[in-house]
Amino acid sequence: MIMFTKHRFPLKSIELTNRWLHALRRASFTPTSNSFVCSDHFKPDDFQIRPGAAHRYLRDSAVPSVFDFPQHLQVCDLSVTLASDISPTFVDTIVPL
Predict the structure, then answer these.
(1) Contact, 5 vs 47, CB < 8 A?
(2) DSSP helix/strand/coil, 8
(3) CB of 63 closer than 8 Å to CB of 20
(4) d(CA 90, CA 74)
(5) What are the tens digits of pLDDT across the range 68-82?
(6) pLDDT at 52 over 60
(7) DSSP-assigned letter for residue 34
(8) Which end of the chain has the lower number of beta carbons within 10 A, N or C?
(9) d(Cα 83, Cα 17) in Å, to the nearest integer?
(10) Residues in a beta bridge with 6
């Protein structure tokens, strides 16, 4: 039985943080160092197993992609807040993915 794990937003990578925010489809959400995404939202190949490690590690390039969005969220709203720099300071601008 695989237990779920929680994974922090990759705040040090602006591009990857923006990809996570785009995937989550949460309007006006600004992740902090205390923001997590459950492992249920990642595909099995998003993880790597390190020999001797007690748990799975998320690959550096992984983006959450497993969701069961309600009907009103099936079309992605691109007006979500995206990261502006690595500090976690954020602005309301759209960055093309």
Answers:
(1) no
(2) strand
(3) yes
(4) 25
(5) 878 776 665 555 555
(6) yes
(7) T
(8) N
(9) 7
(10) 38
